[in-house]
From TrEMBL:
Name the record gives this protein: Membrane bound O-acyltransferase domain containing 2a
Lineage: Eukaryota, Metazoa, Chordata, Craniata, Vertebrata
Basic and acidic residues bias spans: 477-487
Cytoplasm keyword on record: no
Top-rank taxon: Eukaryota
Organism: Mugilogobius chulae
Length: 499
């Protein structure tokens, strides 16, 4: 009940009556209310503090102050952790040598996040899904570490040592404290992100984000009419808000009808046939995803309403507002591989993991990336069980794709059959992998896997060991045509990136 969760809310109690009326926890009511307020402020920010009317200094100050206000409203004094984490990390950037600054900053920032997560989970409210203060800290951690690596690339490396995408992201001047805080704590992304590159955010603040650098090869007209005017985000914002409303409605309708915890119900396990258990597992996970669709799409709409997120034009001249989008719902639900699902889910986090870990880790980057993802998410044992399982499933999916898929490319009919089979396998594999992420604790997670006899674990290990996979070439040896050149590593390209 809402009244029972008031004590766990660390923010304002102003909306307590609304919480009691709609029977939702106060922290969740505060979060949604702040995001809706941020949406209104974003429209005001774009109209009245447009770069043509206000200086970058004013825009930085207003964006930062509004962000701190929303943090205080939602999290109370716990929001001071945002400043402490940012302040310590900025000090490391200033006083540590450029050669190792990014490593020290990564350790300090991630370590502070993990310390806060341990305190919250094991001291205060273990197992409670609430809008806790470590959620925004996760996004701030991504931003700080990304910035540290980009400063290191820009100030300590030669151009020939960087990939095309790293050259674009590289920061050539140390940001001021105001620019740094604005990037980390602006009102558009402080509560739910998404993460973005510092150069893209700086271009948005300074009003240069509509220049042709985001529009190369978009419509084939270097001086075309579409590049001369600033597009309106109104259509994109309205569309995303409709998606939010639909996602919220679906989630509220199905979350109680199809609880994930029911997969461990003893009566269900003893009486339901295997195919029923598989279908229920898929439907339960399907009913859970709209919650994330709602949160991430609303965050994207807020940024777009402020004028941030423009990503060039399509071939027919339609403006794209997906520069910092965090998901592609259709591609998620129709994914025919484990990798394709992950590429379209929490996109900005995937890009962060790729840029700070996968591309830079010299030994087993896939395992290192999954481990970093687990550490970043938190300290619940279920997270680690999910990501360890994810390593095995990823290896098996890669082996199957390399060895089996070519036999189905002989005709369109064969390929459609292959796509149908891999879609079903992907959905089951994702659902199986993610169950511990939802259940959190070791006991329920092991009970679920035991009820399935750890079948996918053994199957994936067998496939990974039995089927050979060619080693990936180092990134710098790949043909330049395969390297992404856009500011977001083409994270919003609707086509699947070649591996």
């Amino acid at each position: 009940m809402a009244t029972q969760t008031t004590a766990s809310c660390t923010g304002s109690t102003l909306l307590q009556p609304i919480s009691e009326i709609i029977n939702l926890p106060l922290d969740q009511v505060n979060f949604v209310a702040c995001q809706l307020f941020a949406l209104l402020m974003a429209v005001w920010f774009r109209i009245y503090l447009h770069p043509s009317k206000s200086s970058p200094f004013v825009r930085h100050v207003v964006a930062t102050l509004l962000g701190f206000y929303l943090a205080l409203f939602c999290f109370g004094w716990y929001s001071l952790h945002f400043l402490v984490q940012s302040g310590i990390s900025y000090g490391v950037m200033i006083f540590a040598g450029l050669e190792n600054m990014h490593k020290y900053c990564f350790i300090v920032t991630l370590g502070y996040l993990i310390l806060c997560q341990i305190t919250r989970v094991y001291v205060f409210d273990y197992g409670m899904y609430s809008a806790d203060f470590t959620g925004p800290m996760m996004v701030i951690t991504q931003k700080i570490t990304s910035m540290a690596f980009e400063i290191h690339d820009g100030l300590s490396k030669r151009e020939t040592q960087l990939s095309p995408n790293q050259k674009y992201l590289a920061i050539r001047r140390m940001p001021s404290l105001l620019e740094y805080l604005s990037y980390n704590c602006n009102f558009m992304g402080i509560l739910a992100g998404p993460t973005c590159s510092y150069n893209d955010y700086k271009a948005f603040i300074e009003g240069t984000s509509y220049q042709p650098r985001h529009q190369d090869n978009a419509n084939g007209k270097e001086n075309g009419k579409w590049k001369q005017s600033e597009p309106s985000p109104q259509k994109a914002v309205v569309s995303k808000l409709c998606t939010c409303a639909l996602s919220l409605g679906v989630y509220l309708s199905l979350c109680r009808v199809l609880p994930v915890e029911y997969v461990n119900n003893d009566e269900f396990l003893s009486s339901a046939p295997v195919y029923t258990q598989i279908v229920y597992l898929y439907l339960a996970m399907l009913a859970l995803r709209p919650k994330y669709y709602f949160v991430w799409t609303l965050a994207d709409a807020i940024n777009n309403a402020a004028g941030f997120g423009f990503n060039g034009y399509t071939l027919d001249g339609t403006p794209r507002w997906d520069l910092i989008s965090n998901l592609r719902i259709v591609d998620i639900e129709l994914a025919t591989s484990f990798k394709l699902f992950l590429d379209n889910w929490n996109i900005q986090t995937s890009l962060w993991l790729k840029r700070v870990c996968y591309e830079r880790c010299p030994i087993n980057p896939t395992a290192a990336t999954f481990l970093l993802s687990a550490l970043w998410h938190g300290v619940y044992p279920g997270y680690y069980m999910t990501f360890v399982t994810g390593i095995v499933v990823t290896m098996a999916a890669r082996a199957v794709r390399h060895n089996i898929r070519p036999y189905f490319l002989v005709s369109d009919t064969h390929k459609r059959v292959y796509d149908a089979m891999t879609w079903a396998a992907t959905q089951v594999a994702i659902s199986y992998t993610v169950v511990p992420f939802v259940l959190l604790a070791v006991g329920p997670s092991l009970k679920f896997y035991r009820s399935w006899y750890f079948c996918l674990h053994f199957l994936c290990l067998l496939l990974a060991m039995a089927l050979p996979v060619k080693k990936r070439r180092p990134l710098k040896q790949q043909d330049d045509s395969q390297v992404e050149h856009s500011s977001t590593d083409n994270n919003c390209n609707q086509k699947v990136k070649s591996s």
